[in-house]
Write a structure and sequence with these properties.
- By secondary structure, the chain is an alpha/beta fold.
- Among the domains are: 161 residues, Adenylosuccinate Synthetase, subunit A, domain 1 (Adenylosuccinate Synthetase, Chain A, domain 1), CATH 3.40.440.10; 92 residues, Adenylosuccinate Synthetase, subunit A, domain 2 (Orthogonal Bundle), CATH 1.10.300.
- It is 32% helix and 21% strand.
- The N and C termini lie close together (10 Å).
């Protein structure tokens, strides 16, 4: 059986959690392959809302094995807070499996994230301050602490000491902060060793055997294509690989096992943090999308920047990820609009760009070229077949499909699990 990759096609918050939940009953494994607790998924089941930050969405589906892959960075305090909160609501989290090679977020990572962002001032990236970037930086600098290190106290202390040797100099001499002791960090991390130990496995081997046994594996991205550290709107990106290519490195599954790439595209566009956003709205229309769509961060609670759908970005995401299926979410939010603009190209200094500009500078100065599509006023939240949608809603979906270059297989018409139109099965 194949591995299926699920990615966001914009700047995140597209509704990947709902798509993962929809696929959950048809797959045996759901793997989170990148990111940490700097992003969240919101899933609504039978009127109950679950906000997930670090755990894979598959944790909510009985019979599914949720996996935190090697490409994830883990704040152990957040992990167990999230587990305890779900257990208190009757969710069985015992199937959770964690890669021994996943890196651990330590207290000094969070401290450096916050002080560095403040130091940057107007040049800040807009991070969540949760230590994600510094942890990935340590990973690349070969100074990182991995989950497996918690089971060898001597190795753990050596690694923490090596990481703090330079960091304490930076904290004290540049940021005027107190030095952090090796004992303090080591003891904090070791507190979690016994509890996490039963969850830790060689996940790449586990997933290879699952695929060999004809089980389906869903690889779930955190963040989204335009936040990918290589292919996103750098430097206003995350610190990991959030595209389909990252699914392989972050899970240990080779690309030859991936059969399908599903991308989630919200019916309009949002982003959080800093960085260019060509279709961003600073008027009543933007306020309408924010309020109607509940566009406030799952992890941070901060309001999201809102704008019209950007087909240039959609085409880019389809190309970069090799998308086979698109899922449109929040189509219902557009109900009541007489006319709906869609960005079909950019104008940069009088030159039309139908594809993403090559340079950051050009993208920063891009002005959207809009095409107006007719809106609809009918309530679509109860629609369960594509034919049930108003003609103009159908036309909107088909127009975006043509502009994007990949077919829509699923349409979301509300936040609930059942508020979904399935045009063709994803598994």
């Amino acid at each position: 059986m194949p591995a299926i990759v699920l990615v966001g096609a914009q700047w995140g918050d597209e509704g990947k959690g709902k798509a993962t939940d929809l696929l959950g009953s048809a797959v045996e494994y759901v793997v989170k392959f990148n990111g940490g607790n700097n992003a969240g998924h919101t899933v609504v089941i039978d009127g109950e809302t679950y906000a997930l930050h670090l755990l894979p969405s598959g944790i909510l589906t009985p019979g599914v094995t949720p996996v935190i892959g090697n490409g994830v960075v883990i704040d152990l305090a957040v992990l167990f807070e999230e587990i305890d909160a779900l257990e208190a609501r009757g969710i069985d989290t015992s199937p959770l499996v964690i890669s021994a090679n996943a890196h651990v977020i330590a207290s000094y990572h969070r401290v450096l994230d916050k002080v560095t962002e403040r130091f940057l001032g107007k040049r800040k990236i807009g991070t969540t301050g949760r230590g994600i970037g510094p942890t990935y930086a340590d990973k690349m600098n070969r100074l990182g602490v991995r989950v497996q290190d918690l089971f060898d106290e001597k190795i753990l202390r050596q690694k923490v000491e090596g990481a703090l040797e330079l960091k304490n100099q930076i904290l004290a001499k540049i940021y005027n902060r107190r030095a952090i002791s090796v004992d303090e960090v080591s003891e904090e991390l070791l507190r979690y060793a016994d509890r996490v130990r039963p969850m830790v496995r060689d996940t790449s081997l586990l997933l290879a055997k699952a695929l060999d046994d004809d089980q389906t594996v869903l690889l779930e991205a955190g963040q989204a294509t335009l936040l990918d550290v290589d292919h996103g709107t750098y430097p206003f990106v995350t610190s990991s690989s959030a595209t389909a290519g990252g699914a392989c490195t972050g899970s240990g599954i080779p690309p030859t096992r991936v059969d399908r790439v599903v991308a989630i595209l919200k019916a309009y566009t949002t982003r959080v943090g800093e960085g260019p956003f060509p279709t961003e709205l600073h008027d009543d229309a933007g306020d309408f999308l924010r309020e109607a769509g509940g566009e406030f961060g799952t992890t941070t609670g901060r309001p999201r920047r809102c704008g019209w759908l950007d087909a240039v970005i959609a085409r880019y995401a389809v190309r970069i990820n090799g998308v086979t299926d698109l899922v449109m979410t929040k189509l219902d939010v557009l109900t009541g609009l007489e006319s709906i603009p869609v960005c079909v190209a950019y104008d940069v200094g009088g030159v039309r760009h139908d594809e993403m500009p090559m340079s950051q500078s050009d993208f920063h100065h891009a002005t959207p070229v809009f095409e107006e599509l007719p809106g609809w006023s009918e309530d679509i939240s109860g629609c369960r077949r594509f034919e049930d949608l108003p003609k103009n809603a159908q036309g909107y979906v088909r127009a975006v499909e043509e502009m994007s270059g990949a077919p829509f297989s699923v349409i979301g018409v509300g936040p609930g699990r059942e508020q979904t139109i399935v045009i063709r099965d994803l598994v």
